[in-house]
Amino acid sequence: MKNVLVVGFGLAGLCLCRELEKNGIPFVCIDEGRQSTPSKVSSGLINPITGRRFQLAWNYSQLFKVFEPFYRDLEERCGSHFFNEIEIIHPFTSMEVQNNFAISALDPLHEDYLSVNDKIHSWPITEEFGIIKNGFRLDLRRMIEAYSKILKNSKILRIEKFDYEQLHIEEKSFKYQNREFTEIVFCEGPGIASNPFFKNIPLVPAKGEVLIIQVEGLDEAMILKKDLYFMRISPNTYWVGSNYQWDYEDSKPTAAKQEEFYQRITSVLPGYKIKVLEHWAAIRPSSHDRKPYIGRHKIHVNMMIINGLGTKGCSLSPYLAQEAARLILQNDYIVDRDINLERGVEFAKKRAQKI
Ligand SMILES: Cc1cc2nc3c(=O)[nH]c(=O)nc-3n(C[C@H](O)[C@H](O)[C@H](O)COP(=O)(O)OP(=O)(O)OC[C@H]3O[C@@H](n4cnc5c(N)ncnc54)[C@H](O)[C@@H]3O)c2cc1C
User: Does the beta carbon of 227 sit less than 6 angstroms from any atom of ligand 1?
Assistant: First the structure.
């Protein structure tokens, strides 16, 4: 009989818990309850179209088939609403952007996702614009709160730091605080850097900062992508971000970034009265090739990891949870090479040989 210990209840750990629950596999989850995690800071956007050339995101059709029913089912399980369809307004700030958008919109692969100038909105923009359709927003804070309440009530989720020293590795199982588990899955996001079993996986973490602002007299549900993303989270209140910083001292918000964002916001929304309500920052657990890592430890094969969710955690996570459940249920299951931990291990070895 399987019995799994999940470490981390961010997006990756939460989706794994739900997948285990759906498969009837008993589990316990431990999370230290950090506040500034990428999952709690994230905008939760699932944008089907990506990059300067407006291409369909990696493996999107496959991921969509998994995440859409997964989040809808989770909403039902939690009796809460946190998964919404959205559209993104993309102003053509240069001829190049406009051309790239127009070329991409002609591709039959993109017909469900791109259209030009066919909506009325109240953003103060003068440029022509394109619209990215059929995207989603996952309200991660609400989802984490709703599902954690259920798991805490049934004593499945415990809020404490995982202590690696207390983990006893037996021949075919693990003992942690006098309980026995057949598998352990680490879903620690950037916290993996302190994990003695997986600390060498080649993450390329990127810090991002976010402002939550109130804008008097502007209440627009469509998302604006102009310089920054502007996403309404409640009436007149917007999540605005973000940036990518690979070189940073710590994961805390900085006064310099708040000032910079404020200037950028006022140039997109000139004349509006803007109040900064919150300022958040977190580290994205990005991988060396922008794809996630999932796999087993080389020596302790029933010890696994889900990490490297990077900038696309919301679309990836349900698929990764499904793959992890397969790994747990089938000893000989092989994860797709694109997301397999093996490639990260190979990359880390090659990098070490160069040093
Ligand atoms: C500013 C910003 C904007 C973003 N926007 C988007 C977006 O729009 N769309 C999108 O798809 N993605 C976005 N992302 C990325 C996305 O948020 C991440 O990919 C995802 O949240 C990572 O989830 P995770 O579970 O791997 O990590 P985390 O969120 O870090 O979760 C790990 C959990 O493990 C716990 N933990 C760690 N170590 C231990 C330990 N030793 N003991 C106990 N608990 C532990 C932590 O408390 C935490 O709760 C954004 C990220 C940032 C920073």
Answer: no
Atom of ligand 1 nearest to the CA of 208: 1
Instruction: Give me the residues paired with residue 279 across strands.
Output: 211
Give me the architecture of the 4-41+141-202+288-354 domain, per CATH: 3-Layer(bba) Sandwich (3.50)
Say if ligand 1 is within 6 A of residue 292 CB: no
Domain definitions of the chain by residue range? 4-41+141-202+288-354, 45-138, 206-284
Q: Is residue 312 in contact with ligand 1, taking CB distance under 6 Å?
A: yes
DSSP string, 7-43: E--SHHHHHHHHHHHHTT--EEEEE---SS-HHHH--
Cα diameter, the chain:
67
Q: Is the CB of 151 under 6 A from ligand 1?
A: no
pLDDT tens, 112-143? 999 987 778 999 999 999 999 999 999 999 99
Q: What is the pLDDT of residue 355?
A: 57
Q: Which atom of ligand 1 is nearest to the CA of 284?
A: 53
DSSP conformational letter for 198: T
State residue 3's pLDDT score. 96
Q: Which of 50, 70, 314, 316 to mutate to test the pocket of ligand 1 (most atoms within 8 A of CB)?
A: 314
On average, the pLDDT of the chain sits at 95
Residues 340, 343, 344, 349, CA torsion sign = positive
Q: Is the dihedral of CA 245, 246, 251, 254 positive or negative?
A: negative
Note the CATH architecture for domain 206-284.
Answer: 2-Layer Sandwich (3.30)
**pLDDT score at 352:** 77
Please check the confidence at residue 12 and state whether its pLDDT lies above 60: yes
pLDDT score, position 251: 95
pLDDT tens-digit series, residues 172-197: 899 999 999 999 999 999 999 999 99
Please tell me the distance between residue 35's alpha carbon and the centre of ligand 1 in angstroms: 10
Looking at the DSSP bridge assignments, the partners of residue 176 are 167, 179
| Cα–ligand 1 centroid distance for 99 (angstroms) | 35
